[in-house]
Amino acid sequence: MNHEAVDSTLSAMKENARLNHVPIMEDEGMAQLLQLLEQQKPVRILEIGSAIGYSAMRMAIGLPEAVIDTVERDEKRYEDAVQFIRQAGMEDRIRIFHADALEFDTESLSGSYDAIFIDAAKGQYERFFEKYEKLIDSGGTIYCDNMHLNGSIEIPIEQVPKRNRTMVRNLRKFRANMLEHPAYHTVLHDTGDGLMVCTKK
Ligand SMILES: C[S@@+](CC[C@H](N)C(=O)[O-])C[C@H]1O[C@@H](n2cnc3c(N)ncnc32)[C@H](O)[C@@H]1O
């Protein structure tokens, strides 16, 4: 790994995210995710929601043994991610797919994953989970970001702006279902915007 190329690419990604209002993971949540992944030591990671490839690259750097597949539906973000991955010389570690993860043919992903990181449309987490959890074996873990939705998950629904209510209701339901899911051991971390960690029994 060329550390200089990687460091300058990470800085360029942060600047791109700032200028284009791309919601990449914040430092605190990223550090917590990396700490948990370093303990788990996954070799194959799937990410749903690459944006411009920032968290995929941070995972690839933090876990030198891992390869990452990541899916993004927005064309411009996908193209920026491809550029950044190339600029950092990480094409052999990160494979990015331009697709809607809910319609994506999982046959193009070769086999199962040790970890899945869900960081895409917040109202669709249950659907992502149902589609992709088949790709996780016993002992594998699904990480879900933004489980607090900037605090809106905790407040009475009437105080949530109307346009966000379906998303908040969906996320609450998903969180409650996962905390009681008989096939998963689930822990909710309050770090960052709330990281839920679901390990398959
Ligand atoms: C919060 S951003 C991801 C940030 C990224 N994980 C990071 O921290 O660098 C969420 C991304 O998910 C993408 N997204 C939302 N729904 C999606 C779907 N159904 N399939 C693929 N990508 C999706 C959005 O276009 C957006 O770029």
Number of helices in the DSSP assignment: 6
- The strand count comes to 7
Shape: globular
- Following the backbone from N to C, one meets helices and strands in this order, namely HHEHEHEEHEHEE
Report mean pLDDT, rounded to a whole number.
95
Which bin fits the share of residues in helices? 25-40%
Listed once per kind, the bound small molecules are: S-adenosylmethionine
Strand line-up across the major sheet? 3-2-1-4-5-7-6
The oligomeric state of the chains shown is single chain
CA-to-CA gap between the ends? Answer: 35 Å
Unreliable stretches (pLDDT < 50, length at least 5) are none
Strand content: 15-25%
- Main sheet attributes: strand count, strand direction, barrel closure: 7 strands, mixed
* Alpha-beta classification: alpha/beta
Fold topology:
Blueprint (H helix, E strand, L loop, with lengths): L2 H18 L6 H14 L3 E5 L5 H9 L4 E6 L2 H13 L6 E5 L14 E6 L6 H8 L3 E9 L20 H16 L3 E6 L5 E6 L1
Parallel strand pairs: 1-2, 1-4, 2-3, 4-5
Antiparallel strand pairs: 5-7, 6-7
Helix pairs in contact: 2-3
The structure holds S-adenosylmethionine (SAM).
What does this structure look like?
This protein is an alpha/beta fold and 201 residues long. Helices cover 39% and strands 21% of the residues. The protein has a 7-stranded mixed sheet with strand order 3-2-1-4-5-7-6, sandwiched between helices. Helix 4 links the parallel strand 2 and strand 3. The mean pLDDT is 95. S-adenosylmethionine binds next to helix 3 and strand 2.
Question: What descriptive keywords fit this protein?
Answer:
201 residues; alpha/beta; seven-stranded mixed beta sheet; 6 helices; binds S-adenosylmethionine
